[in-house]
Amino acid sequence: MSPAEPRRSDPASPRAPAGDALGALLAALTLALGIALQLLACLLTLRSLPDPSAQWLSGMPVDAGAAAAAAEANTRVFALCLLVQLLAALFAATGSARLLPRRLRPVTWRGLLLLGFLDFAVPLGGVLCTLGAFVLSRVLPANRASLAVNTVEEPEFAEYLIGSVSYGRGARLKAELRNAEASVDFRMTALLAMQSLPVRTVSPILQEMLADPLDDIRLLAYGSLESKEKALTQRITAERAVLDAPGGAARSGVERARSNKVLAELYGELIYQQLVTGDVYDNAISQAERYAEAALALIPEDAALWRLRGRLALLRRDLDAADAMLQRAIDCGFPRDRLLPYLAEAAYWRRDFPRVRSLLGAMDRHAVTPTLQAALDFWQPAATAAGAPRV
User: Fold this and answer.
1) Is 184 exposed, middle or buried (0-12, 13-18, 19+ CB in 10 A)?
2) Which of 24, 57, 353, 359 has most Cβ atoms within 10 angstroms of its Cβ?
3) How many alpha carbons fall within 13 Å on the CB side of residue 31?
4) Roughly what angle, to the nearest 10 degrees, separates helices 125-139 and 12-45?
5) What is the CA radius of gyration of the chain?
6) d(CA 50, CA 64)
7) What is the mean pLDDT of residues 154-159?
8) 97, 105 contact by CB (below 8 A)
């Protein structure tokens, strides 16, 4: 700021209150003029002639010439009253709007027009309503919440998702597919486009589309689910044929362990991709458990199989077995950080919330996915606030 600027602004500051006072005085005079014109309009109505319409409707004799003269005179008085009331509303709205506090003044011409319409439709009452609202705003306590200003940290950027995420594509396709008002061709195109999404994401939506009222949508959803399930069941059938082939007992333990492990993983994939429901779902869990147990009898130190059995136990809500098998997987060399969410889930089903918080707090926040990060933020709010990066 230059030295000359304060000298230019100082002389203007004493004139600001004077200008406000002059504006308030003019507004008061304008409002008074509007009220006076409204009173004049009320007095003009008293100059109207008696209307003989009631006498004519009741069948009493009426002088036609007198009735016509009364109607003409009353029409002129009515038009004059409307004109005076219009001018009164203009002056009253302008004056009352200027006298209101700044936070209550109309900020657009629409607000001023609404205030003028109130003054025009309700003579004197519009002004009383406006001034009454001002008085109430001064008498009643102000409803102002004092909100603390907090600093919002910038979200962390997950660089490893750049090449694998198509932003908004899945949600848009789901919305298009579930829109029953869209055309059949449009929904069919959305259903076909979903084939490129992960099976675990698509399967629940396809299951939902099996109850769609349109035959084409139902058939296409059923065909998509069947093709994905058939691809896994064919591999299961081929692997079981190798395992149950004549002379299979003569195969080496390594080969039989590999076949059992592959079958356990294939049944686990059916469950993970949500391709089976109901009794077939329960059968897939039992078959995966059976083949995993058979494989572990031959290779008891396979950490991946112990992890699979732990996840199956969680699905059955056998929480003690899940804890034991997941701990065995950790003992066999499986990374503990990757099993902590499953251990926390078992603790959650037990309602052991302190253990849930302890297990999730032991995880490395820099190595979790954004989906799991939301769970960590919920269970560890204090740690999130303390460990948030400052930008």
Assistant:
1) exposed
2) 359
3) 20
4) 140
5) 41
6) 14
7) 59
8) yes
Q: How far is CA 180 from CA 177, 185, 210, 301, in A?
A: 8, 12, 14, 52
Closest C-alpha among 328, 262, 261, 319 to residue 301: 328
Residues 249, 244: Cα–Cα separation, whole Å: 8
In the predicted structure, residue 158 carries a pLDDT above the cut 60: no
pLDDT tier at 178, thresholds 50, 70, 90? confident
pTM above 0.70, yes or no: no
Cα 266 to Cα 233: distance, rounded to the nearest angstrom:
8
Count the Cβ atoms, other than its own, within 10 Å of residue 172: 13
Percent composition of the chain: helix, strand, coil (DSSP 3-state, to 5): 75, 0, 25
Q: Which helix H or strand E contains 245, and what residues bound it?
A: none
pLDDT at res. 142 = 63
Answer with the residue of higher pLDDT: 300 or 52.
Answer: 300
Q: What is the pLDDT of residue 61?
A: 64
Cα–Cα distance list, 110 to 86, 105, 114 (Å): 17, 12, 6
Query: What token pair was written down for 129?
Result: 């309503």
CA-based nearest residue to 101, from 62, 130, 128? 130
Q: Between 195 and 91, name the one with better pLDDT.
A: 91
Helix axes 253-272, 303-315, angle to 10 degrees: 40
Tell which residue, 376, 339, 370, 338, has the closest CA to residue 357. Answer: 376
d(Cα 292, Cα 275) in Å, to the nearest integer? 20
331, 323 in Cβ contact below 8 A? Answer: no
Place of tokens 């195109």: 189
124 DSSP assignment: T
Give residue 19's pLDDT.
63
Q: Which residue has the tokens 């991946």?
A: 304
Q: Measure the CA–CA gap between 301 and 304, rounded to whole angstroms.
A: 9
Among all chains, which residue has been given the structure tokens 């230019």?
8
Q: How far apart are CA 265 and CA 29, in angstroms?
A: 89
Residues whose CB falls within 8 Å of the CB of residue 356, separated by 6 or more in sequence, listed in order: 344, 347, 348, 379
Tokens standing for residue 323? 């804890």
